[in-house]
Design goal:
423 residues; mainly alpha; Single alpha-helices involved in coiled-coils or other helix-helix interfaces
């Protein structure tokens, strides 16, 4: 039932985005409010059906196909909503400029195209709801309890590595948790470990993690720390990124529904990419230049090309409107194209150990969602960095004619280490 639980997470994140777009109201959604409300209602009902499915042992192939179809539609819905959000950000950047009537950025054309996409998704969800009734899946009658708000230590970060000297006399506790985890063959259990601070709850969890890995009770064991930021979207993302590389590689062959692809350990990137639908991929880790090949990426959120053979990013990278994370570290890349500044959703940009990279695009300030900037060359501090007000990570700041130390006062969300040069 892990797939159903992860899918519920994804749908809840999609619901949040629908509500956000509806709340924004901005003229872009004018004329589409009814369709967006229907989409919101449909996803809410589907989520309830999904929670019903997650309580059962779903082994029927037709139900599995239903879940896969639902996942496809959920991803499509998120992409459409992401396009709304992108257009809002783009409009903010271009405010006041004359638009070409025939451009896709024309408000009338945009509403028409988005209206058709939302209508298509609503029709697909109607069919999915009908199919769910045929499988005996219905709406849950019991409300879902919300976890109580807890005040977390913002600096707390845990991992699964365990020093054997940490565990003394906890064998019974570990055995009880193990029994609860393994006695249910067809139900995904949630086993909370509750107690006062300092009693060793995390230590018990680490030991359980160690035991299930050694005994191979499950196909996959993942440790994700949720203390710092209890965000379902982040937790889901970390779970997907921590999936074992060999599992990912073996699952690629012939699987057109794959969304997350780690090719770093395969060595046969071209064959793997041919086996999947590149337009559906959301995550790609690769050590070859996949951007200048025949593959047409459309929905990428994460692109990691660290230590790859890439030497330049194509101007067409601006078409990856959904991109949140881009890593070109330790490559022979010589320049970043100006078009990269149109990636308004980009949150993390990494270009450390890029010895041939001389300068950044002039309008990096347009990356209004940028939170984490990783580099190690003082001459690569972005121009007008003070305008990147969401920045949380800035490793280096070089004082000079183009950068006054007072600029740092505008970056109120900065955290972590910062090296200031040439004071």
């Amino acid at each position: 039932m892990a797939a159903e639980l992860l899918l519920t997470f994804a749908l809840e994140e999609t619901l949040k985005r629908v509500s956000s777009i509806a709340a924004e109201g901005i003229g872009l959604a004018w004329g589409l409010e009814g369709q967006l409300r229907k989409l919101n209602q449909s996803l809410t009902m589907i989520k309830d059906v999904l929670q019903d499915a997650a309580r059962r042992a779903v082994t029927d192939e037709s139900v599995k196909r239903w879940l896969q179809n639902l996942q496809d539609v959920a991803y499509d819905a998120e992409d459409v909503l992401d396009e709304f959000a992108y257009e809002i950000l783009r409009k903010d950047q271009k405010n006041g400029k004359v638009r070409d009537w025939f451009s896709l950025h024309n408000p009338v054309a945009f509403r028409l195209i988005m209206g058709q996409k939302v209508e298509k998704i609503n029709r697909a969800l109607d069919e999915i709801r009908k199919d769910a009734a045929g499988f005996g899946l219905g709406l849950t009658s019991l409300p879902v309890d919300r976890a109580q708000e807890v005040s977390w230590d913002p600096d707390r970060e845990t991992h699964s590595f365990l020093d054997s000297s940490e565990v003394v006399g906890r064998e019974d506790d570990v055995s009880k948790v193990m029994e609860l985890l393994t006695k249910h063959q067809h139900v995904l259990p949630v086993v909370p470990i509750v107690g006062m601070a300092g009693l060793g709850k995390t230590t018990v969890a680490k030991k359980v993690c160690e035991v299930v890995r050694e005994r191979k009770h499950f196909d996959l064991t993942i440790w994700v720390c949720v203390s710092n930021d209890f965000s379902k979207g982040r937790i889901l993302g970390e779970m997907l990124q921590n999936v074992d590389e060999t599992t990912k590689g073996s699952a690629v062959d012939g699987a057109s529904h794959i969304r997350h692809l780690n090719l770093v350990s395969r060595g046969d990137d071209e064959a793997a990419l041919t086996a999947v639908d590149a337009k559906k991929l959301r995550t790609v880790f690769s050590m070859v230049d996949v951007l200048n090949g025949p593959w047409k990426f459309k929905s990428l959120r994460t692109l990691k090309l660290r230590r790859s053979d890439i030497t330049e990013l194509p101007d067409s990278i601006c078409k990856l409107r959904h991109l949140r994370y881009l890593d070109v570290s330790d490559t022979a890349i010589r320049a970043l194209p100006e078009s990269i500044t149109k990636l308004y959703h980009l949150e993390t940009l990494r270009f450390t150990d890029c010895q041939l990279l001389e300068k950044l695009p002039q309008k990096v300030r347009n990356l209004v969602s940028l939170r984490h900037l990783h580099f190690d060359d003082p001459k690569l501090v972005p121009a007008e960095v003070r305008l990147l007000t969401r920045l949380q990570t800035l490793p280096i700041f070089a004082v000079g004619p183009d950068h006054m130390v007072e600029e740092l006062g505008c970056l109120k969300e900065l955290r972590g280490a910062l090296k200031i040069c040439k004071l």
